What we know:
The chain is an alpha+beta fold. The protein folds into four domains: 5-65, no CATH class; 72-135, RNA-binding S4 domain (Structural Genomics Hypothetical 15.5 Kd Protein In mrcA-pckA Intergenic Region, Chain A), CATH 3.10.290; 141-209 and 303-320, Pseudouridine synthase I, catalytic domain, N-terminal subdomain (Alpha-Beta Plaits), CATH 3.30.70.580; 216-292, Alpha-Beta Plaits (2-Layer Sandwich), CATH 3.30.70.1560. The protein is 20% helix and 29% strand. The chain contains eight helices and 22 strands. Helix 2 (74-80) packs across helix 3 (86-94). Residues 1-16, 18-23 and 25-69 have low confidence and may be disordered.
Amino acid sequence: xxDDHSKLxxxxxxxxxxxxxxxxxxxxxxxxxxxxxxxLTAQKTPVRYDWGFLLWDNNKSSLLAxxxxxxxxxxxxxxxxxxxxxxxxxxxIQQGWVSVREASSPNAEYALCTEATAGYEPxxxxxxxxxxxxxxxxxxxxxxxxxxxxxxSQKPSTYPxxxxxxxxxxxxxxxxxxxxxxxxxGRLDQDTTGMLLLSDDGQFIHRLSSPKKHVPKVxxxxxxHPVDETQVSKLLAxxxxxxxxxxxxxxxxxxxxxxxxxxxxxxGKYHQVKRMIAAVGNRVDGLHRSRIGRMDLPADLAPGQWRxxxxxxxxxxxxxx
Length: 321
């Protein structure tokens, strides 16, 4: 942040499509009025900031966040976290169901707030809503230990959805897409257990699920018949599946015991592990995902439980993509 704030111009957030149109218009002046909002055209495309204000740094030709004005109304904070519509959130506050603890006072007690428009800096804010503690997260990054007998679908056909294992705020977080809440980073079959990531950050989901990123995923495979080195060699060399003439291979494969393999894949085709095992003359009786990228499924996270991903977790995952 430059010392001279006089050259910083506050901007209200505007739709991405408006920003792109303004920046593509070389004939536009330095300030273009759009309805009741204003934006500055730039040589570099500005980035949408989801809350607070944007500042234009004339010296560095870049957009900056100004810590002096990064506050949100409490009703908007609750709305962003998925506690309902703004009207519902305002009602929760006014009825005395919401207490807050600011990051600047980590040792302080939660303070009751009944003013829906009260302003708070959201980063590091701790909420207590109807007796449940909830940390503010601008984006949600969640780890779930998927149990067997659940489907990775918002509209399951036979088995319960994995989304029923999550609290309502995670399922109701507002997003720019038609589907609200966090979304699974890839899918696991209904009988597959183990590590499942969920987020409302589209770029994060794409980085970890795109086959082009080659993020390794480790599966613990239990087979119906004994496994041998011949089968392992074929899996490592590549096998042809019925829907693609191009061979697919395991990035790594090792025998654990007579009926168990550890198998690493860097792409996510439909039922890929089961079909690869079938292609070498065996059958999968049990499948568990134990690792994504450089992050292992924590031993203390029981099936059906979830937790927030912390900064260390995200660093491990992002370094793999």
